From TrEMBL:
<dbReference type="GO" id="GO:0003824">
    <property type="term" value="F:catalytic activity"/>
</dbReference>
<dbReference type="InterPro" id="IPR036038">
    <property type="entry name" value="Aminotransferase-like"/>
</dbReference>
<dbReference type="Pfam" id="PF01063">
    <property type="entry name" value="Aminotran_4"/>
</dbReference>
<dbReference type="InterPro" id="IPR001544">
    <property type="entry name" value="Aminotrans_IV"/>
</dbReference>
<dbReference type="InterPro" id="IPR043132">
    <property type="entry name" value="BCAT-like_C"/>
</dbReference>
<protein>
    <recommendedName>
        <fullName>4-amino-4-deoxychorismate lyase</fullName>
    </recommendedName>
</protein>
């Protein structure tokens, strides 16, 4: 797989569709993919998406014997959860293209499956120095009092659309946004979120063999409401 992008559609509404589009097109450029008219493909894909119910469509670019092709998978949205338990991935980093969503999806799924055997819902990838990079299928954010913290920008990882939306909200609200490198142990007593297109904001309620996380009452609920307010109707089909 050359590239992929997924987003949640609920009753015809989606968060930051234009940013998902930009990320997918950027991934195609990074991969030197020769998909015919990818912008037109994305326009056509959006036109056929269901406007009722909950869906988690994925656009993909694949390299085959007859050249590069794009396709749309229209999938029902999996079950979504508000809380998650994390576990550090304890093996080598399996990512081959850490800044491109798609090529490593299966390897990252294996990381999450291994974490599930220990009772966790998400695996956390760590850098060689032990600092947090990202979750297998999520970005990791945390709070220092009233300041929001995200992983430093030069760390190789997927550019999270949900994280970008949260940071934009924080900036608009005048909230300090810190860009840090942190080890799991640095987050003891902090409120930690795992954020993704499918689940939105999930509060980390536990970290296996990791920090004891905390939560400020009402904060995650307020931010979910703010994030939901950014959802927009799909363009007319």
């Amino acid at each position: 797989m050359l590239a992929a992008d997924s987003f949640l559609v609920e009753e015809g509404r989606v968060l930051a569709l234009d940013v998902h589009r930009q990320r997918f097109l950027a991934s195609l450029r990074l991969q030197s993919a020769a998909v015919p008219d990818p912008a037109a493909f994305l326009d056509a894909a959006v036109r056929v998406l269901p406007r009722d119910g909950a869906w988690f469509p994925r656009v993909e670019a694949l390299r085959g014997p007859d050249g590069d092709v794009a396709r749309l998978l229209i999938r029902p949205a999996p079950e979504r959860t508000a809380l998650v338990v994390l576990r550090d991935h304890d093996g080598p980093d399996p990512r081959t293209m850490p800044r491109v969503k798609g090529p490593d999806l299966h390897a990252l799924g294996a990381l999450r499956s291994r974490a599930a055997r220990f009772g966790a819902g998400e695996a956390v990838i760590l850098a060689d120095d032990g600092t947090i990079v990202e979750g297998a299928y999520s970005a990791i954010l945390w709070w220092h009092g009233d300041a929001l913290a995200v992983v430093e920008g030069d760390v190789p990882r997927i550019p999270s659309v949900t994280e970008r939306s949260i940071v934009a909200l924080a900036t608009a609200l005048g909230i300090d946004v810190l860009h840090e490198r942190a080890r799991p142990s640095d987050l003891d007593g902090r409120e930690v979120w795992a954020v993704s297109a499918l689940h939105g904001i999930r509060l980390v309620r536990g970290w296996i063999d990791g920090p004891a996380t905390a939560a400020e009452p009402g904060r995650v609920r307020a931010w979910r409401t703010r994030l939901d307010a950014l959802r927009r109707e799909l363009p007319a089909g």
